[in-house]
């Protein structure tokens, strides 16, 4: 599906399709990026890049991997379980545990390759994958450093703006939906974005919905494997967890939080930064909204990322 990558592959980079299983036995589909002049007789530092929540490897991750491979890293991108070319049934299910596990499964895969240094594996999580990457790093001490880009904590987002009464009503509605799903034999999934890219974002959309459409629903970021949203009852699992409860246990491994100055999601990174222990850094990108750190190479601070991981690992 090369025609669906949102960023052109550099002539100096090789992209290889790979697959591996997570601890649940689900096969993940990934892409491995290396510089064409890379010496496979040497052991290299590696990065794993996770897609925005609801996104796939051909979107934001391919932008990061293409650039960072040219800067000396081997980079693994992947489709989350139940999405894209990865396995898992039913489709479009979301799980805070399994989406966190996907990063550790990538560490397993990299660590079994002869040309990787097991002591030099780092993570980059974009949007919702930022929260999962932090959760994986808190659990998995094999991960030596983590950076988040426009981070979303989806377990916080699942309850955002709700009072106790609204939480209870939401649980009751989703519990009733589980009865419907059980009776139908399959969970309800309602896609959020159009099947074909739009020329313009509908004027009647408010923020941040309009922002999601500015990436996913138009040619800029549209992909047929990223129709938006997850099964309706997936939110129940996220309402029952807080994936960043143990963020302080990442220390003494370093964390870099990168966020746009105009990002509606900025508070997620600010809160996580407050709760994390040193070494940590909150890096604010000028004139950038949330989605700008998905694909805008004039906004993504690649020099900062390169320096961070080379010093950390």
Question: Sheet with the most strands?
Answer: 8 strands, mixed
- CATH fold title: Rossmann fold
Total DSSP helices:
10
- Tell me the fraction of residues in β-strands, as a range: 15-25%
What's the shape? globular
CATH class: Alpha Beta
Helical proportion, percent range: 25-40%
Strand arrangement across the biggest beta sheet: 1-2-4-3-5-6-7-8
Parts with pLDDT < 50 across at least 5 consecutive residues: none
Query: Average pLDDT across residues?
Result: 96
Look at the helices and sheets and give the structural class: alpha/beta
Q: What is the string of SSEs from the N terminus onward? A: EEEHEHEHEHHHHEHEHH
What features would you describe in this structure?
By secondary structure, the protein is of the alpha/beta class. The chain has a single domain, classed as 3-Layer(aba) Sandwich (Rossmann fold). Helices cover 33% and strands 19% of the residues. It has ten helices and eight strands. Strands 1-2-4-3-5-6-7-8 form an eight-stranded mixed β-sheet, sandwiched between helices. Helix 3 (128-139) links the parallel strand 5 and strand 6 (145-149). Helix 2 (96-111) packs across helix 3. It is globular.
Brief summary of the model shown:
The protein is built from ten helices and eight strands. By secondary structure, it is of the alpha/beta class.
């Amino acid at each position: 599906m090369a025609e669906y990558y949102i960023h052109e592959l550099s002539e100096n980079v090789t992209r290889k399709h790979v697959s591996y299983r997570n601890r649940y036995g689900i096969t993940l589909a990934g892409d491995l990026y290396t510089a064409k002049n890379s010496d496979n007789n040497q052991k290299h530092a590696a990065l794993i890049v996770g897609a925005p929540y609801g996104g796939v490897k051909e979107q934001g991750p391919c932008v990061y991997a293409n650039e960072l491979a040219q800067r000396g890293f081997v980079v693994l991108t992947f489709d989350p379980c139940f999405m894209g070319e990865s396995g898992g049934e039913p489709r479009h299910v979301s799980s805070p545990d399994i989406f966190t596990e996907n990063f550790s499964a990538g560490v397993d895969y990299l660590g079994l390759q002869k040309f990787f240094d097991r002591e030099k594996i780092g993570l980059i999580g974009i949007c919702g994958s930022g929260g999962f990457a932090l959760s994986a790093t808190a659990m998995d001490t094999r991960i030596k450093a983590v950076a988040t880009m426009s981070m979303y904590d989806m377990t916080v987002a699942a309850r955002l703006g709700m009072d106790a009464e609204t939480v209870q009503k939401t649980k009751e509605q989703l519990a009733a939906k589980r009865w419907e799903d059980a009776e139908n034999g399959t969970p309800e999934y309602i896609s959020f974005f159009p099947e074909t890219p739009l020329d313009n974002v509908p004027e009647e959309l408010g923020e941040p919905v309009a922002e999601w459409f500015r990436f996913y629903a138009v040619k800029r970021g549209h992909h047929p494997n990223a129709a938006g949203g997850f099964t309706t009852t997936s939110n129940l699992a996220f309402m029952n967890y807080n994936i960043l409860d143990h963020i302080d246990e990442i220390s003494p491994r370093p964390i870099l939080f990168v966020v746009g100055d105009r990002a509606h999601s900025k508070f997620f990174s600010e809160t996580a930064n407050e709760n994390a222990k040193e070494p940590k850094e909150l890096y604010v990108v000028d004139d950038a909204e949330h989605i700008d750190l998905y694909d805008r190479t004039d906004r993504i601070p690649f020099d900062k990322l390169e320096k961070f991981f080379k010093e950390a690992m």
